[in-house]
């Protein structure tokens, strides 16, 4: 099988492929389809935010194997305000002024573990706006997951651990690092 192609997507590209994108998201996170379907409106709204960038990974037939997107994080946005409340006061400026939020990064299960997530992460963050990048990821025992390995190997450090978002029982970690990615 030849190597998947990485493509930069405009907001219109992402929204135009939303069914495929949501199918990858549901499979990667093992979420029920109706829960993922509820994300449709959010993603469409996210695509209009300042600093929006998206990447997709396509197989030979052009089918979506993975995707990632993010935008500039600003106060008034739900995630930003939740995270702000959880970060120690003295650390807020460091992490929240001029921050790029990596919102979603997913690879369909059959394509995982072959470097695609790494390519998507680098492609998305290469040239991304912002002084730092922030993301949230579910806590897993001993940080044993592909997502955790990926972020740790790219220099992401703890910003908040064991964070609870309203309406979600699972604890999340907020991880971050400086931008650009090429300088440690
Ligand atoms: C996280 C995700 C996007 C990574 O994509 P991927 O294509 O699997 O990533 P890669 O193949 O580039 O591998 C990433 C890291 O996981 C490691 N890895 C590969 N297979 C692994 C396995 N079975 N167990 C643990 N780590 C593994 C890789 O070695 C790499 O780490 P390294 O850079 O230290 O070597 C993808 O696995 C995914 O969609 N997971 C489910 C959804 C998810 O958790 N998304 C992120 C939510 S914030």
From TrEMBL:
Pfam family, one: Acetyltransf_1
Name of the protein in question: GNAT family N-acetyltransferase
Domain N-acetyltransferase residues, every copy: 4-180
InterPro entries cross-referenced by the UniProt entry: Acyl_CoA_acyltransferase (IPR016181), GNAT_dom (IPR000182)
